[in-house]
Design a protein that fits this description.
By secondary structure, the protein is α/β, with parallel strands linked by helices. It is built from 22 helices and 19 strands. Helix 6 crosses helix 7. The protein is elongated.
């Protein structure tokens, strides 16, 4: 054989060997691929399946050959699958789709499929689908989606999903001119149940409450859990107020039935507020706020009742919104001020300190009482920021007085919400350290309700304050619900007698008896007593006679600026020199 022919034959053999090597490599890749690779003719009939098909979908090897895949696609996805394949078979661009496919065991798995049209390719002559099992990922996505929209404990929609449904209902009602109702349901005194019986019992009560609420609703209504102990019900077509009130009455009745507890039945009640579209508002936000305001009105009126939103409530809501908006700017605009009401030693008549009182000078509304804006601060989450400002400003003033050689003890009020939700002891430690003042010059005033709401935790906090050297007193004693068993365990320094008892002690035997009893109780528990609201000599004489050590009130001075209090605390000769 001629050399040229030999060379050509050798070349052909080499090329054939390379082709076979590439085919073997391709076959090995396909055979060992973790993804399913199938080839289909132009109408979808399977002409090739890789070994992964049997492993992933569970059918015996070769079972898919000669069949179209559509017969095993989920009914909800089959139309999309057919449309995608048709697009793929008649076009040239790749197509991507996710669908559910029936496993051999009858379950549904999710497949992520990429298709390529290789019908004209001489080595393939088919449509190639590469499919991957993404069931775990899809389930994780579905779980995340569920958690984003539903409450895990009760299975009800959460605040986010409910807001979306209320928004849609409002939009539909605007087009159809229908009325809708939004009902806000709050479980009364739920925190007390959690604290006394434990969160496990509390959670079970919430689950049972959700079931009872659902039983009271109509088919078209939607219930959601929008807060710890609060639920919302949407009535998308509330043509009859009677239906809404009937539902509210059923909920009150259902909630009044005993809930099974760990040891004994638990009795709770509910407060319900209702707002209507378009009667009360024309936006989802306002509708929700109005229902919440009506619910709080029901709580104020004694709980275990329902209230509809009213024009008067609307005015109150508007005022609270104005206050909340103003409060968020008040500290930045330097609108807050502290004034100081002197405290005197009844034995010597000397000023021994003062109570720091917060004042807000609103640029438009003038002086606003703390009784108006502190509740708003508590509900809006601003009380911590405001309370910290008060403490810092009071400590700054204490430092100024100490540099002048004065050593008054300044009392700062801590609200119930601030005491319960913030680490007051740590804050006092940080602020006194930064201001370089001794904690002994500071007194923290707490209300009975703040302490007794969680007595065990309160004991720990008060003990921490005492370890710092801070004096602690109970403000407005006698108006709350103190438990003497806890009171004797609290390392308190002072009991402050509320002004409502002091006002008539010289003419009302009952008030006189109460004040004498409080003084005796305090002394027996090793505490001192301060009376507030002292306005005349007769009151002062009574308090002095029965051993009250300290007092404050208009008789000794109204709340005043720090400069005026400074002048009154200076020795007489220095006072004369400054004048």
């Amino acid at each position: 054989m001629k050399p040229g022919i030999l060379k050509s034959v050798a070349t052909l053999l080499q090329v054939d060997g390379e082709i076979q090597e590439r085919e073997e490599r391709f076959r090995a890749l396909v055979q060992n691929s973790f993804d399913i690779i199938t080839i289909h003719d132009s109408v979808g009939k399977t002409i090739y399946e890789s070994p992964a098909a049997s492993r992933i979908v569970g059918y015996p090897p070769g079972s898919l050959i000669g069949r179209t895949p559509f017969r095993a696609v989920h009914p909800a996805d089959v139309d999309r699958a057919r449309e995608a394949f048709q697009t793929l078979a008649t076009g040239s661009d790749p197509v991507f789709i996710e669908l559910r496919y029936r496993h051999a065991d009858g379950s549904w798995i999710w497949l992520e499929t990429l298709g390529n049209n290789l019908l004209e390719h001489p080595g393939v002559r088919g449509v190639v689908l590469t499919s991957r099992d993404v069931t775990e990922r899809k389930h994780a996505e579905e779980r995340a989606q569920y958690l984003a929209n539903y409450d895990v404990l009760t299975g009800l929609p959460n605040r986010t999903l409910m807001y979306d449904r209320v928004s849609q209902a409002v939009a539909n009602a605007k087009r159809s001119r229908e009325r809708i109702a939004l009902m806000h349901v709050g479980v009364d005194r739920f925190k007390m149940i959690n604290d006394s019986l434990g969160h496990e019992v509390g959670d079970q009560i919430l689950k049972s409450a959700a079931e009872r609420i659902k039983r009271c609703m109509g088919d078209s209504s939607t219930a959601a859990r929008v807060g710890g102990d609060e639920f919302t019900i949407l009535f998308p077509a509330a043509e009859s107020l009677g239906d809404v009130t009937a539902c509210a009455a059923r909920i009150l009745s259902e909630m009044a039935r005993p809930f099974p507890g760990a040891r004994e039945d638990v009795f709770v009640s509910a407060s319900i507020g209702v707002s209507m579209f378009p009667d009360d508002s024309r936006s989802a936000d306002a509708l929700s706020k109005h229902a919440d305001a009506a619910m709080h009105s029901a709580k104020t009126l004694g709980r275990n009742n329902y209230q509809f939103f009213t024009r008067e409530l609307n005015e109150e809501v508007q005022q609270r919104m104005v206050l909340e908006t103003g409060l968020r700017l008040a500290l930045k605009r330097d609108e807050m001020r502290l004034v100081y009401q002197p405290k005197v030693n009844l034995a010597t008549r000397e000023i021994i300190g003062a109570e720091a009182l917060l004042r807000w000078h609103h640029p438009k509304h003038g002086l606003i009482s703390p009784a108006r804006f502190i509740p708003v601060a508590e509900e809006s989450g601003l009380v911590g920021q405001i309370g910290e400002w008060v403490l810092r400003d009071a400590c700054r003033q204490i430092r100024d007085w100490q540099e002048m050689g004065l050593s008054p003890q300044i009392a700062v009020n801590v609200s119930a919400r601030q005491f319960q939700q913030y680490d007051v002891a740590q804050l006092v430690s940080d602020v006194t350290s930064e201001a370089q003042v001794s904690p002994e010059s500071l007194e923290i005033e707490l209300t009975e309700s703040a302490i007794m709401n969680d007595a065990e935790a309160s004991i720990v906090t008060v003990e921490k304050l005492k370890c710092l050297g801070v004096r602690v007193s109970i403000d407005d004693f006698g108006t709350g619900y103190s438990s003497l068993s806890y009171l004797k365990r609290l390392p308190l320094d002072l009991l402050k007698i509320d002004r409502s008892f002091v006002r008539d002690i010289s003419i009302d035997p009952n008030d006189a008896a109460i004040v004498r009893a409080i003084i005796t109780l305090a002394h027996n528990l090793g505490m001192k007593v301060i009376a507030e609201g002292v306005e005349d000599d007769a009151q002062m004489a009574f308090l002095t006679e029965y051993g009250c050590q300290y007092a404050q009130g208009f008789l000794f001075g109204q709340p005043m600026r720090a400069e005026e209090l400074t002048s009154r605390m200076l020795p007489r000769e220095e006072r004369a020199a400054t004048n």
